[in-house]
Amino acid sequence: MATHSLRVVSDRAAPLLQVDSVSLEFRTSGRIVRATHRVSFDVHAGDRFVLLGPSGCGKSTLLKAVAGFVAPAEGEIRLEGRRVQQPGPDRIVVFQEFDQLPPWKTVVQNVMFPLRQARGLSRAEARERALDSLEKVGLADFADAYPHTLSGGMKQRVAIARALAMRPKVLLMDEPFAALDALTRRRMQEELLALWDNAGFTLLFVTHSIEEALVVGSRILLLSPHPGRVRAELNSHQFSLASQGGTEFQAAAQRIHTMLFGEPAAEPQPPRARRAVGR
Fold first, then answer.
1. The last residue of a domain, from among 112, 137, 167
2. Which helix (DSSP H) or strand (DSSP E) does residue 183 occupy?
């Protein structure tokens, strides 16, 4: 399928995050495997930017590179114009695993820990900020609970609270709701969007779900199957959870499926959506 080159034209200030012709590689069984090939995109302050593509396209590896855990084989990643070379508290990652919380610490202690270690806050300052973040995710009443007493969705909310308490420049989320049941996943999507409305943070979000990308994202980067290349960049701010069953939403999902895989989805869909952005 021919590669589309849809780019969002913006008159906003300079991008907060720039990924410039980044190729990522890893070694396995004596050979080098290329995960992404010369991927470029910009993320502006306040964006909800989604990396969308099939399994193996390198989207999670790209997120780890932005976090500073993986060095590009070629190209460069810049945050506020400075090259990303290592992890830092200005980029916090929320993973999909539930068990990312030390079980011997209470909920509030889990949120306080990076504030004390990475931000150097006093115990009182860290506790105040931690409780404020827990309030925002609806878990203030569970501040003194231990992780093993929480459901999977609640653990993810603690992880999100811990990340937001750090006040990162970019919040990185790697398929954070993938392991949740459908109802809990929808609720977490609602809560994430409500938090974004309230706090206005910048989000880089990885998913392989077209529907989730349309709901969560204001902008979506489509990556081709392995190795990941940029297939298209689209606006999606017009969609929401409320529009998920609508004709326009389903048509947009069908269009994205066709752009990713070169063939329509298995079930018949309404007519294609009008193109969200131009060249």
1. 167
2. helix 182-199
